[in-house]
Design brief:
four-stranded antiparallel beta sheet, three-stranded antiparallel beta sheet, about 10% helix, globular
Length: about 110
């Protein structure tokens, strides 16, 4: 990511203002990643008592996942906005792994979480 601090939050199609975007991410501060074996997802949760974000202007963004056109054809994964969190004391709490069950997935899905 190449960003610069912005005077105001603008350009989002998902959030009306900085407060709405900040609250969305504050309440959704957990994330999961596929493990090497692909049978479960490892999770982490960001925790802080001093949540504060700033709006930024994205100059450029690259992702080895989302830039892969075999996974995401052009236009299917579009960056909406970016927020910067700095000088905020945080800790990362591990979450219990989520098991991926590939054998009993609903039609059209290759895997689902139990």
């Amino acid at each position: 990511m190449d960003v610069r601090i912005a005077e105001r939050f603008q350009g989002s199609e998902l959030f009306a203002d900085l407060t709405q975007a900040s609250e969305f991410f504050r309440h959704g501060s957990a994330g999961f990643s596929a493990t090497r074996g692909g049978r479960c997802l490892d999770g982490l949760e960001l925790q802080t008592n001093s949540w504060h974000v700033e709006p930024v202007e994205v100059r450029s963004a690259r992702s080895t996942v989302f830039d892969d056109q075999d996974r995401f054809p052009p236009g299917t994964a579009v960056l909406d906005c970016a927020l910067l969190m700095r000088q905020v004391p945080v800790s990362w709490r591990p979450l219990p792994p989520l098991r991926v069950n590939a054998g009993s997935a609903p039609a059209g899905n290759s895997a689902y979480l139990e």
